[in-house]
Amino acid sequence: MSLEPLQINERKLEHWISCFKTYNVKKMSVIDMAKFYASIHELCQLEGKDQTYVAQRLGISQGTLTKHLKFHASPTLIKNLSIENGIVDIEALYILASLSEKFPEPVAKFIQQWKNGSISGGIRSAVKRLANSINSKNEDVLKPSSANETMLDISIIRTRKGYSLILKNSTKELSFDIDNNFFNA
């Protein structure tokens, strides 16, 4: 069975985004926002929509979307800074994700030193010092803070009738069934 090509209905997409933001925006962690943005981005890409479109629909800058998408695609080691160590600075997480692509060893060393508390200062300034030291071939490193954040599991499943969006955290589960009419103008 072949499914009809999808077309995003702007009004329904806005409603979907609004429902999600209302769901848990005050307790949403950086990683949860990254998962949500990546899910919306993936869904829109299926329809041929670009990152500018996604950022506009989400009401965020394209730079903010880029940072969250890079963080979402980053290694678990970097994601764990947010999950386990409460790092919420998307700029710092984005820089680490970018650095880890070409310099995984210094980034891993930095993260271990941060977790051990052997790095001083705030996370963003520490990450910038790491980037500067990598650029100058000097691998010095820096330290974290903690915060309890609720993890949110987001998945999009293609079904015969359309898609199902499932949002789960430790206490709630929301499921949105999205039929093919959702995407038709």
List keywords for this structure.
single chain, 185 residues, mainly alpha, three-stranded antiparallel β-sheet, 53% helix, 11% strand, elongated, disordered N terminus
Placed side by side, the strands forming the largest sheet appear as 1-2-3
User: Percent of residues in helical segments?
Assistant: 40-55%
Low-confidence stretches: 1-6, 138-149
Radius of gyration: 19 Å
Q: What characteristic shape results from the CA principal axes?
A: elongated
| Class by alpha and beta content | mainly alpha
What's the helix-strand series? HHHHHHHHEEE
How many distinct beta strands? 3
* Mean pLDDT score: 77
The DSSP helix count reads 8
Sheet-strand content, in percent, reads 5-15%
Distance between the termini: 23 Å
The profile of the biggest β sheet is: 3 strands, antiparallel
Structural commentary:
The protein is elongated and about 55 Å long. Helix 2 (30-46) crosses helix 4, helix 3 packs across helix 4 and helix 4 (62-72) crosses helix 6. 53% of the residues lie in helices and 11% in strands. The longest helix is centred in the first third of the chain and has 17 residues, at 30-46. The two termini are 23 Å apart. Strand 2 and strand 3 form a beta hairpin. The protein has a domain at 90-147. Residues 1-6 and 138-149 have low confidence and may be disordered. It has a three-stranded antiparallel sheet, covered by helices on one side. With 185 residues, the chain is mostly helical.
